[in-house]
Amino acid sequence: MALTVNGQNTTSFSAGSNLTVLCSSQSNPPAQLQWAFRGELVNVTDPSLVLLHVSENQSGPYSCLAFNNRTNMHDNITAHIVIANVGDSYGSQTTLIQ
């Protein structure tokens, strides 16, 4: 499984940015995908989660959950995304947990 944010290896972004979090999973048949934010399911089942004009309160763990209903196999991956106001110094933080 792989998770990318705006095609980059960083997970720190400025408030007001638009983000696209992309999840990919190799599975046959293709896995069903579900997104979660801070452990709560989000009503998105597409491989991409689009976040427009993000704010600091959208910082946190974003998880992609994959499930293959034929094999009953499942997997997940999480990216901890930091949204900061311009001028705040958080540095570049990349954390992927599988």
**Unreliable residue stretches:** 89-98
CATH-derived topology: Immunoglobulin-like
Alpha-beta content class: mainly beta
Proportion of helical residues? under 10%
For the biggest sheet, the summary is: 6 strands, mixed
Residue fraction in strands: over 45%
Terminus-to-terminus distance: 8 Å
Strands, total number: 9
CATH architecture: Sandwich
Order of helices and strands: EEEEEEEEE
The CATH homologous superfamily is termed Immunoglobulins
Radius of gyration: 14 Å
Total domains? 1
Describe this structure as you would to a colleague.
- The protein has 98 residues and is an all-beta fold.
- It is built from no helices and nine strands.
- It is elongated, with a radius of gyration of 14 Å.
- It has one domain (2-97): Immunoglobulins (Immunoglobulin-like).
- Strands 2, 4, 5, 7, 8 and 9 form a six-stranded mixed β-sheet that branches.
Question: In brief, what are we looking at here?
Answer:
The chain has 98 residues and is mainly beta. It is built from no helices and nine strands.
Question: Topology, please?
Answer:
Blueprint: E1 2-5, E2 12-14, E3 19-24, E4 32-37, E5 40-42, E6 48-51, E7 60-68, E8 73-84, E9 96-97
What key phrases describe this protein's structure?
disordered C terminus; mainly beta; three-stranded antiparallel sheet; six-stranded mixed sheet; elongated; Immunoglobulin-like; 98 residues
